[in-house]
Amino acid sequence: MLDTVIIGGSSAGLSAALILGRSLRNVVVLDDQKPCNRFTHASHGFLTQDGTAPAQLLQTARDQLAPYATVTLKSATAVTITATAHGFTVLDASGQAHDARTVLLATGLHDALPALEGIEPLWGKSVFHCPYCDGYEVCGKAVAVYGTDEAAMHLLLLMRNLTPALTLVTGGLWQPTPEQREKIASLGIRLAETPVSRLESTDSQIQAIRFADGSTLACDALFIRPKTSHRTPFAHDLGCQMNVHQVVQVDLRGRTSVAGVYAAGDLSSPIRSVAIAVAQGAAAGYGINADLVEQGIIGDMAPSAEGR
Ligand SMILES: Cc1cc2nc3c(=O)[nH]c(=O)nc-3n(C[C@H](O)[C@H](O)[C@H](O)COP(=O)(O)OP(=O)(O)OC[C@H]3O[C@@H](n4cnc5c(N)ncnc54)[C@H](O)[C@@H]3O)c2cc1C
Question: Distance between CA 98 and CA 70 in Å, rounded?
C-alpha cells in the first residue's frame, strides 16, 4: 500500500513528491508529460529560475528526486480513481492499479484558445495570457489584447502598465460600456472593433492582426484570455468542492473537501504561476504527511513494492 499516488508530475506534483520523499513516504507520481506551459521556451518569475525552459525546470526536479528511494516517477496516464476501504485505487492506462492511502490531484488546467485563424503555433511564443509571465519581454512594444468580454479590462490595464503602444481588439464580439470606452481612451489605448480575419506570423512570431475589412494592425505580441477547464474529471467525480474560481477548494495544506484527497497547482489556485504551483505542492506534501502521522502511519525506510 502506497502512502500517496500523485497524479500529475509537473511543478505542483513534483514539489509535493519532494516533501513526501523527504518524509519517507511511499509515493508514485503518474505523469503523461503535458504541462500547460510546454508551448513556451522560457518560464519567468520563479526566483532562481527566471528564464529557464519549462522542460529544464522539470528535468532538474526529476533529477533531484532520484535519490529519494520511496518516490517512483512513472510516465503514465491515470484513467480512474476508485475509493476503497483503505483509501484509493488509481488505475493507469497501462492497466496497473496503484493502491494508496491518499491521492494528490496535480493535473492542472487545459487552455482552449479563442477561434482565431493562425493562433495555434503562436501560443506561448508570441501569443500569451499572463502579463507577469511574458509581459516584461514586450515592455514598450506594440501589443494587442484580444478581449471578447469585460473580463478583458483587467488584462488590458495590466498590459497598459507595461506598454503605451496598446490596442484592445474586440473582434466586434464585445461592446465596452461608455465608462469603459472613456477609461480606454483616457489611457491612450486604441480600440479595434472590426471582426478579425486571421493572425499573420513568421516562425511563431506574430506580425499583424488582419481584419475582415482587409486592414491590419502590426503587433509584437497578442495577449488573450483562454477558456480554462480541468484537465481531468477526477476532482468532480470524487465530489471535491469547487470555489468561485471554479478550481478545487483546498485549505492551506492542500486538503480538499473529501477526506484523503488533496489538490495542488493550477487545479486549485486562482493564480497560475510556477512559483505558486510549487508552493501549493509543498504545502500539500506537508498536509498529507501531517495527516498520516496523526493516523499513526509512520514513514518507511524501505520502499514498498512500487518503490525502487
Ligand atoms: C503558455 C503558458 C506559459 C506560462 N508561462 C509561465 C511563466 O513564464 N511563469 C510562470 O510562473 N507560470 C507560467 N505559466 C503558468 C504555469 O505553467 C502553471 O501555473 C504551472 O505549470 C502549473 O503547474 P501544475 O503542476 O499545476 O500544472 P501543469 O504544469 O499543467 O502540469 C500538470 C501535469 O499533470 C499531467 N496530467 C494531467 N492529467 C493527467 C493524468 N490523467 N494522468 C497523468 N498525468 C496527468 C500533465 O501531463 C502535466 O504534466 C504559463 C502557462 C502557460 C499556459
Answer: 14
